[in-house]
Amino acid sequence: MSDGVAGTFAVPFGDGTIRFTLPAGLRGAVATGHPPAPLADASASADAAVATPLGAPRLRELARGKRRVCIAVTDATRACPDHVLVPPMLAELQAAGVPDDAITILVAVGTHRASTDKEKQDKLGAETAERYRVVDHDAADDAGLVRVTEGPGGIPFRLNRIVAEADLLLSTGLVEPHQYAGYSGGGKTIAIGCADEATIAYTHGPAMLDRPGTRLARLDGNPFQEAVRRVARAARLAFVGNAVLDENGRAVAISYGASEAVQDHLASVAGPFFTARIPAQVDIAVAGVGAPKDANLYQASRAASYLQFAPTPVVRRGGVVIVPAACPEGAGEGAGERRFFAAMSEAGDPAAIIERVRRDGIRPGEQRAYIMALVLADVSVVVAGIEDPEVARSVGFLPAGNIEESLVTAAAIVGTPASVLVVPHALQTLPIVENALPGEAV
Fold first, then answer.
1. HSE-up of 78 (CA within 13 Å, CB side)?
2. For the LarA-like N-terminal domain, which residue ranges apply (predicted)?
3. Burial class (CB in 10 A: 0-12, 13-18, 19+), 388
C-alpha cells in the first residue's frame, strides 16, 4: 500500500483512466498488487506452454482420431486473451489431423447476452472467427442441453449439447480471484459458462454463497469450486489453456494441460501478487473496474462486493464504496442481468432482498442481487459517472456525475476526517486487513 503521488490518484474508466485528488478532510492511500513483469511475447509463451502441458498428454496426442472437438471460450465480459490462448490449441489439433469442420468454438456466455460478431472477432481474432464455427451457449434452450451428472436432491446438472457430445472438450479461462470460486479459470468456463439455468442457480444460490468456504482466493475446501470441478469432470474436460493477467491486462503467466493442475498452478503463482496488505479498515474505498467489466452495473458492482467479501471487509460498517463506471448497457442486457435489476429494484430494502432470496431461492442473475444486498446492509455504494443515474437509484445505489462529486457525497455520509483507500483494480487486488477486530470478517 502506498500514498497517492502528490495527492493525485488514478483509476480505470472504460478503456481510459481518470485522475482525481481528494477534497479537504480525506486522507488517502493506494492498494495495488505486485505482479511480475509481463511476458515479453505472450503468443510465443503460449506456443511453448501448449507443448509442455501440466498433468496431461500433449494436446495433439489427445486429439488423434477425434471428430467432434469443442473449445469453450470466455465471453466479452471476461478480459481473457482468447486470441492468444486458442491459436496454439488449433495448431495442435491441426497437427493431429483434426479437420476444421470437426471443431466448434462455443462462447460460454452463461446467462449473459449472446455475443456479437464483432465481439467474437475481437476475442478470437478475425481469422479464427471466420475460419471456424463459432456459436453462443444458450442456457434457456432446453433442446440444446444434456444432463451430465446429478446434483443435490437429484437435480440434473445439464450442459450445452455441443459440450456433452464432444469427443474432445477443451476450454480457455482467466485465473484471478473470484468471489465464489476462489479463483476463476480451470473448469469454470465449462461448468458455469456452458450450464443450464438450474445448475447456475444451484451454484450461485444462498445455500452455497452463505457457506464460509465460498470465499475469494480460496480453492481448498471451497464448496463452489468443488461443484465446478465435479461438473467439469463429468463433462470430460480434457485440456485447458489459462492465463494470469497483470493490472493492465498483460499476460504474466500462461499454462495448458489438465484443468485442475493448471488452475492450481496458476493460482499459486497469482496469489502472492494479487494480495495487498492494509493496516486497518477504511471509511471510504474507490474500487476501480475498467473495461470490459464496467459495461453494465451487474458486472461493475463486483468491485464493491469483492472488497466487502475479502477475508475482512475493507470498508467499515457505515462506510462508502465508490465504483467509477459509466455502465453504457445500464444494468445489463442478458437474462441474468435483467433478473439482477428486477430483484434489486422490486424487492425493497436490502433486508427484504436477503429474506426473499433465502426463503424462495434464486434464478441465475439474482445471486448478484443477494450479494449486493448483503453489501448494502453494511455500506453505501456510489456509482461515479454512470450514464443513466436512474439505473443506480433503482437498485439502491447512489449515482454521482463524476468521481469528485462521489467523494463529496461519501464524505457527507461518513463525516470528516476520513480515510480513503483507492484500489485501482478491485477485481484483481485483494486487500488484506492486518489489524482486524473480532467479528469483522463476513
1. 31
2. 13-212
3. middle
Q: Where are the beta strands (DSSP E) in 181-309?
A: 182-183, 237-245, 251-257, 275-278, 282-287
Instruction: List, for residues 203-220, the tens digit of each pLDDT value.
Output: 888 989 889 899 888 899
CATH of the domain at 295: 3.90.226.30
Q: How many CB atoms lie within 10 A of CB 116?
A: 11
Computed on alpha carbons and rounded to an integer, the radius of gyration of the chain in Å comes to: 21
Instruction: Find the helix or strand (DSSP H, E) in which 121 lies.
Output: helix 117-124
**343 vs 353: CA distance, rounded Å:** 7
DSSP 3-state assignment of 326? coil
Grouping H, G, I as helix, E, B as strand and the rest as coil, residue 87 is helix
35 within domain boundaries: no
Give the H or E element holding residue 425.
none
Residues of the chain with confidence (pLDDT) below 70: 1-6, 153, 347, 436-442
Q: How far apart are CA 319 and CA 93, in angstroms?
A: 53
Instruction: Write out the residue range of the structural domain in which residue 196 sits.
Output: 42-272
